[in-house]
Amino acid sequence: MCWSVMQSCSSAVCVLILLTTTLTTASESAVKVNLHDSATLSCSERCSGLVRWTVFTKPTDTLAECDQTSCRSVKEGYQMIHDQYLKGNLSLTITDADFTKRARYTCDCDGKDLCDMKLQIEPLNTPVQIEPGESLVLKLDVSDPVEVIYNSTDAAGPSSGQICTVDGRSLQCNDEYKQRMAFFSALELRGMKPYDSGDYIIMDIRNEEVIHTYTVTIKDDQPCPCRDQGAVVPAWMFTLTMVALVVVCVVSVVMILRKRREIERH
User: Fold this and answer.
1) What percent of the chain is modeled with pLDDT above 70?
2) Does 74 map to a domain?
3) Residue 100: its pLDDT value, please?
4) Fewer CB within a 10 Å sphere, N or C end of the chain?
5) Mean pLDDT, residues 122-148
6) Are residues 138 and 110 in the same domain?
7) Closest by Cα among 138, 135, 99, 139 to 119
8) Considering the entire predicted model, what is its pTM?
């Protein structure tokens, strides 16, 4: 990068560009936690004035703040600790991290930005095993526009790729899924068949994040005819029947031999 820039500018300008790019990239860090876990957004800086944490897109909407006197949780679920503040630890704790709290957060001291932290939630993974003909229910978990991506595990199944998008109450699906997919409080894919097995991935379009992966297996067990309607034969009954058949056979043979002897005597 620097070599191409140096061809059209002085080395001093190139260094300045590189430093600016590096500082911009390093200024934001990400914290990723499991759904509903607590998350700590770290910021270690000295500030003798008012420290505030806000969402980057809402700079006037304070979440928590501290000054030399005390700390205050302006919004429920966000807190700072005064003892830590006095030691230069300006971290913000989010007590219950859910998908609505995914955002870029900013910590400032008397209006001067100190730290930028991004909160991310680990994608959910749900194994699903259902009977043929049943419906697959896919929760969206977020209100942001999402796409549903299907990765097939059956060579005879539908092709992999995007199958639907949801934006608000608007559902758009490929022709293959238009008649099978319904949208209420969740997506419902009807009439599942064994070849529908695979991964169904809910992807946040705006943030390009995987929200939820459903690993789906459709049962394809063929029932044994001997088990239909409770017709399972116990082992002792089978043995008894075989013994009876042997006895009948022996008796029959003995009777036949006797008749032959009688015939021969006459």
Assistant:
1) 78
2) yes
3) 94
4) C
5) 96
6) no
7) 99
8) 0.69
